[in-house]
């Protein structure tokens, strides 16, 4: 799940770079890159780390019960 989420972020950045190099405003016209892009990407770091810690602890707990 984490890998899929990071791939979405990487794909967005790649598409945005490609469309912004065209200099014709296509980054605002394309459905994948239009919208507000002024968000802090590190805002999701704390919940992602909490989720990853919980998942890791659950995996360790499952391994210890067998």
How are the SSEs placed, and which strands pair?
Elements: H1 2-21, H2 26-29, H3 45-65
Helix content: 55-70%
The N- to C-terminal Cα distance equals: 24 Å
Largest sheet: none
Number of domains: 1
Indicate the mean pLDDT. Answer: 79
Percent strand equals under 5%
Discrete helix count: 3
Q: Spell out the helices and strands N to C.
A: HHH
Overall shape: it is elongated
Structural class based on helices, strands and sheet pairing: mainly alpha
Low-confidence stretches: none
Number-wise, the strands total: 0
Integer-rounded radius of gyration? 18 Å
Transmembrane segments: 42-62
Keywords: Membrane, Transmembrane, Transmembrane helix
Describe the structure.
The structure is a single chain. This protein has 3 helices and no strands. With 66 residues, the protein is mainly alpha-helical. The chain has one domain. It starts with a helix and ends with a helix. The mean pLDDT is 79.
Features:
elongated, 0% strand, mainly alpha
Short characterization:
This protein is mainly α and about 70 residues long. The chain has helices spanning about 1-20, 25-30, 45-65.
